[in-house]
Amino acid sequence: KGVEKSKSIFFTNTLIVLFMTFMFLGTVTGVLAIFGEEFSKNLVYPAQGIIRLVSFGFIERFDIFGITVMVFGSIIRASILHISIYQGVRNILPNERAKWLIHLAIGLSVIIYSFTNIHNHHHYIGTYLTKYYPLTAVISISIPVITWVLSECKLFLNKTY
């Protein structure tokens, strides 16, 4: 029963991470496909540039709706990523009292990374497009695979002992 539950949770988490990866890559790829790399580097908020192109007859400025969708989308993605990291680390640290320390460490690491590595948005786009975009795809695919291998090793070790 525990093994089936573990496989179900792993399958669900894998689907969520893959869905999040495609959402993230789709947003960036859409901006690059519409505006091109050179023009995208000069945009302050590239995803908002796409939303400015959308117009309806009764709504001239669609910016506020686009910004709202982007904010809610980023909150959902960050929350899912935070929960996924917590679930992975929680299995390594069995102490139940450490859960708030894990949440605090994840939050602080995101804040520290944001302030130390991203100097301005243009630097972020230039660095991201050349270095982190391919790395994000590799990491997003490898995390579920590594998690699966570790869980299978753990099940194998539990069966042999």
TrEMBL record:
One of its GO terms (biological process) is spore germination. It holds the Pfam family Spore_permease. The chain crosses the membrane at residues 12-35, 64-86, 98-115, 135-157. This is GerAB/ArcD/ProY family transporter. The keyword Lyase does not apply. GO terms for cellular component: membrane. The keyword Acetylation does not apply. Keywords: Membrane, Transmembrane, Transmembrane helix.
